[in-house]
Amino acid sequence: MRPSNTRRVRQIALVVVAAVVLLGVNVPPAWSYISEWRHEQLINSPDYMKQFGHWDTINVPDANRVNAIHAALLSTGKVLLIAGSGNKEDMFATRALKSLLYDPATGESKMIPVPDDMFCGGQTTLPDGRLLVAGGTQRYEKLDGAVTNAAGTMTVKNENPNLPMTLPAGTVFVSPTGVRYRADAETVLPPAQKVGQGRRTQVTASEKPVFVEAVDPGPAAVNPNPAQYQVEGLPPDVARNVYGQGQQMTLRKQDYQGTNQAYTFDPVSESWSRVSDMAFHRWYATLTPMSDGNVLTTAGLDGTGEVLNGQTEIFNPATNAFTERKELTHYFPTYPAIFETDKPGRMVYTGANAGYGPAERGREPGFWDMDNGAFAPIPGMRDPDLLETAGSAFIGPVNDQRMAVVGGGGVGESPRSTGRIDYLDLKDPAPHFTPGPSLPEGVRYPNLVNLPDDTMLISGGSRDYRGKGGTNNHIAQLLHPDTGQLTAAADPAVGRDYHTEALLLPDGRVLTAGSDPLFDDEQNLVPGTFEQRIEIYSPPYLYRGGRPTITDAPPTLVRGQTATIPTPDPSHIRSARLIKASTATHVTTTDMRSVALDVSPRAGGVGVTVPDNPALTPPGPYMIFLVDDRGVPSVAKMTNVGPGRRALPD
Ligand SMILES: [Cu+2]
């Protein structure tokens, strides 16, 4: 696939070899030096870059390096990389919680502290351009052997129908034998529910789970049996109705726990604000933007480290509040890849996910109806047991309603992975997966990015769990939706496994960041170092000579209407794409989409018409690109598609 080396390079290499032999230099290192030099010559040659593109490592000051767990393109064209505690427990303990704002146009960067540990929260961009981050880390995991204090989940109950109850973090629960356990989070209990009157009165206690840990270390606090626990310090008349029910207190592994806090980042003031709490604690939640401007909030580990049992809530950006939707209770593993289809309220779950959950539950792809909660499986997926850490996305313009599911691995720490790409045509009367091409290697954690020429960059990933055994892929491919085939792209220099992300930039390049290997060596002996380098890919279209330009763009585009985009050479413009300012984390880029606009000639520019259907263009910030007859895109202008609160087509 690679172009052959030039004769000139070969001749120079021979001369150098002759010289090192004559000088008695150690030959193998000299060879490796020569082959590296030859490789550099090759990948920097104009012909090569024209065919395969080019990667550049970006230098940000040492003080501005972060463990990028989350990435978001903002309406200002800047990129926010969020670390939170960055999967470093000492950073969590000292509340050294970070994010980095990077401006790809100037190369400038600045650190912005984050108010809570957003590490492994859910994220998406809101219609008004704010970034929403919901959930994150309440507590780090404790592995088997590291647990010193017995702990478990307590169901806290309130049987009083007249009294709401808030038990602060640190509340102590006492076992029947006097052993004390401390709650690690606040518990808010509404009054019990009272139905009927007189003798027929029925009271149903309100209840919430909370994680408790023995105040004193040691096996004396282990209790394998269910028990009722009293709340320390409550007056006796209150204590009668408020108590804890524990199943087991053990010294077993304790999983990460989610927070219920949510924040928005304002791209203009470049600052964080807290919004209402979620109804549930969530770690590894998915946020999916919807055509009505609201945000579907699903999945995650709760405040006790358990996978949520399908509880769903909706964020309304107008009220900054979450509302539980009790009729929507499909069970998903963590970070499920859920997208809205072109039918408003009809979601598609591709089966791709990341992180936690049993192998036998919630793994089947399907359509999920927001009106009634019905879930209809989609058949035909190959390697259905290898969907954890798979990537999935719309391919080409979202108007075509075609998707791809790329790579993935076995559940948990399985060493298995696949290079499978399966396609899904949502316009088919009976949608089902069909086989596409295979990547040259098995890939967990692939980064997928829609480009303005309709190709999709697939980069990064590793063959084994978190890059074990030195298995980072170091390859990139371009997927062509028109032919369904792959072509090779230049190899990235930086390997990227777990906790990695990629975003399209307004200038048409792709930013990649993050990678969190378990080990730094092939023998799996040296603990891994978080990859802090940023690498940017310039696709082949940036090496074809001049680019079309957009001299101005309206700040807002209206669905169903035509706007003029001024450009000096409109006769060469063939297409226009709106690409949503999206977010990326844990192979979950549920807000990435490219929208094809109808293009028509106009004086001084081109007319572009936005599709009428809000499920193709959910409200929010977008990049608008004009693409010429050589497939070369302009630098994008940022614009906005207005809120979608209108009569929806069926
Ligand atoms: Cu994570």
What does this structure look like?
- By secondary structure, this protein is mainly beta.
- It has a 7-stranded mixed beta sheet, with no helix packed on it. Strands 9-16-12-11-17-18 form a 6-stranded antiparallel barrel. The protein has a 5-stranded antiparallel beta sheet with strand order 5-4-3-2-44, with no helix packed on it.
- A hairpin with a 5-residue loop joins strand 38 (500-504) and strand 39 (510-514).
- Helix 1 runs antiparallel to helix 2 (27-43).
- Mean pLDDT is 93; it is low at 644-650.
- The structure holds copper (II) ion.
- Copper (II) ion (CU) binds next to loops.
Compile the SSE list and pairings:
Blueprint lengths: L6 H17 L3 H17 L2 H7 L1 E5 L11 E4 L5 E6 L4 H5 L4 E5 L6 E5 L8 E4 L5 E4 L2 E3 L11 E8 L6 E3 L4 E3 L5 E4 L3 E3 L3 E3 L6 E3 L1 E9 L12 E5 L4 H4 L2 E5 L10 E2 L3 E5 L4 E5 L10 E4 L5 E4 L14 E4 L4 E4 L13 E3 L5 E4 L16 E4 L5 E3 L13 E4 L7 E5 L13 E6 L7 E6 L8 E4 L5 E4 L16 E5 L4 E5 L10 E5 L5 E5 L19 E5 L17 E2 L4 E5 L6 E8 L2 E2 L9 E9 L2 E5 L10 E9 L8 E5 L9
Parallel strand pairs: 41-48
Antiparallel strand pairs: 1-40, 2-3, 2-44, 3-4, 4-5, 6-7, 7-20, 8-19, 9-16, 9-18, 10-13, 11-12, 11-17, 12-16, 14-15, 17-18, 20-21, 22-23, 23-24, 24-25, 26-27, 27-28, 28-29, 30-31, 31-32, 32-33, 34-35, 35-36, 36-37, 38-39, 39-40, 42-46, 43-45, 43-47, 45-46, 47-48
Helix pairs in contact: 1-2
The chain binds copper (II) ion (CU).
Copper (II) ion (CU) binds next to loops.
